[in-house]
Input
Amino acid sequence: MPRQRNNDVERSRQRVAQEAARIIVDHGIRDYRLAKQKAADRLGIVGRGALPGNAEIEAAVAEHLKLFGRESHADHLRLMRVAALSAMELLASFTPRLVGPVLVGTADENSAVNLHVFADSPEAVAMELACMGINYRPYERRLKSRRNQLETFAGFEFHHSNSAIQATVFPVDGIRQAPMSPIDGKPMKRVGSDFVQQLLEHI
Output
């Protein structure tokens, strides 16, 4: 009997993850927790054990894009990675690193290119963008550090190569310690332009 119950719970988790993935892709919702709640409500599934973790939802998003996006998803991902590489060249003096959906392959038409850049102050990045004649919108992002504390970082969003680019600014020594991923609680994966170039060669 317990095995049957475990199987039922596992099926429920898969159904919620798949529905959450559909909501994320179709409606551009970036908040996995909100997508999970909406999916559970739609399916009439209750109980914490029946709800998937963020890593399960991310895997379901990747699977959904692979199944329903096929060539169009691969083409879009390639364009976003080209835009990421170009933006990284623009911001080369700030040692940019690519993170997030464009890196892991779960980016869709509602995604932005997420970069981490490193500077003595956010103003230095803003001045560089202004000198290049790039219009930008400032934002703030709260991220969890390894000390399990939420810290607020300044960032700048701008458009480049037909993509939204979000460059979040960290202290120069912040390159050694990535913030924790909201997906799996581990340090965020960050890669440089050489790695992005390799990704483009293997899409």
